[in-house]
Amino acid sequence: MAKIAFTAGRVAGFKCPPDKKQAFLWDVTAPGLGLRATPAGKPAYVFQGEFQQKTIRITIGNPDAWSIPQAQGKARELQRQIDEGHDPRDIRRDVLAAATQKKAAAVAQALTVGEVWPLYLENGRPKRRDAWKPRYRADLEAMAAPGGEKKKRGQGVTRPGPLYPLLALPLAGVNEDTLKSWYDREAVAGKHQAARALMMFRGFLRWCSARPEYRSMTDRDAGKAAAIVEDLPSNTRRTDALEAAQVPGWWAGVEQLNNRTASAYLRALLLTGARREELAALTWANVDFQWRKLTLADKVESTRTIPLSPYMAHMLATLPRVGPYVFVSTGKARRITDTRASHAKALQGAGIDSLTIHGLRRSFSLLGEAAGAPAGAIAQVMGHKPSATAEGYRPRSIDALRPFLEQIEGHILSLAGVQFDSTSEPGKLRVVAG
């Protein structure tokens, strides 16, 4: 192939004949340097050499961007790489890969927790679940809320959630030190709230570490560091429950509440052993008065169906039917959400120092045992996992379960001093002093 000395004029005037797919002009000064032109495209400097007895061709760049001396220098560099036993194409690929990796690392370093958090809320639901439990999802959102909104109760505005300060941090920068510093600040406002926020954030880190796109920038165990764990408040398992002697006072206190819906809700918790959210979300569509059944949203399974015992049936029949929910409320959720204030008033009237809402669920279990109901029947009504039953898991039909729940209900009503006539009209329930 003929070679000429490249000049600015020759390079600028070089064109590809219209009857050819491409044409080349080769430089006499730098071995392997050429100028390639096509009928439609702009000319480009190329390098052509021989590596391992095969011809290779590499594009250098456009003459508008590369001067002739620069292109000649690049051609000599590529030839040196071949002389040293290297394939210039591999070197170029490595350089491009390194640049891409560096760019990706820079993007990763800049990715904040706040950018990933909404994706976690959207896609991080627990395994084998279609969605978060509504209450837990709401708690996750509240924990990371920016605050500044007018309080629903009292004066002033809400403060930022405990997790909100973490949202501004780069995900790659979340480590033992940053979490320790964050936890120490939040624990000043409340250790238990800060500890719960930490548990939630651990779930977020686990989710991130399981995603290929976030794994390399996530320190999964940052929240488990000894410096943090040793400062967590003790997690004492609650064992509060009603004693048999406390049932009459508790029942009377609850019955005297001005909020009739809250009164019925609290009694229903004790009579069914249901979780508070399961019962709060109960709809009239899931109350079957004809066949005496209740269908509840379940923590373990999607739903569970339990018998509708006589007193429960009469009590629910006295509630107003306004909207889809049984325990209706005028609040945003349109159903009862928090009865702690009402419960505290009933406890005060009964002289009971402390009893949580969940303690009513424990009370059902203990009172059920005292009534003589089998452990398996109690667990099935409560929706416990099969492994939690003491007698081995033997699922019972609704009709087989019904006598045991009525047995438990009768025992609780007896302790409460309630005289109940199953043939009476709704609203005729009354308490008889013992």
CATH fold node name of the largest domain: hpI Integrase, Chain A
CATH level-4 homologous superfamily of the largest domain: Intergrase catalytic core
Q: Radius of gyration from the CA trace?
A: 37 Å
Structural domain tally? 3
Report the helical percentage.
40-55%
The gross shape turns out to be: elongated
Termini separation (Å)? 117 Å
Mean pLDDT: 87
Structural class: alpha+beta
User: How much of the polypeptide forms β-strand, as a percent range?
Assistant: 5-15%
- Tell me the series of helices and strands, N- to C-terminal: EHEEEEHHHHHHHHHHHEEEHHHHHEE
CATH architectural category of the largest domain:
Orthogonal Bundle
Helical region count? 17
Largest sheet: 5 strands, mixed
Could you characterize what this model shows?
There is one protein chain. The protein has 434 residues and is of the alpha+beta class. The protein is built from 17 helices and ten strands. The protein has helices at 8-13, 68-83, 88-110, 113-123, 134-143, 176-189, 191-209, 212-215, 226-229, 247-255, 260-272, 276-280, 310-317, 340-350, 357-370, 375-382, 398-416, and strands at residues 3-4, 23-27, 33-37, 44-51, 54-61, 287-288, 293-297, 303-307, 418-419, 430-431. The strands form three sheets. The protein has a five-stranded mixed beta sheet, covered by helices on one side. It has a three-stranded antiparallel beta sheet with strand order 6-7-8. It has a two-stranded antiparallel sheet with strand order 9-10. Strand 6 and strand 7 (293-297) form a beta hairpin. Helix 6 (176-189) packs antiparallel against helix 7 (191-209), helix 10 (247-255) packs across helix 14 and helix 15 (357-370) runs antiparallel to helix 16 (375-382). The termini are far apart.
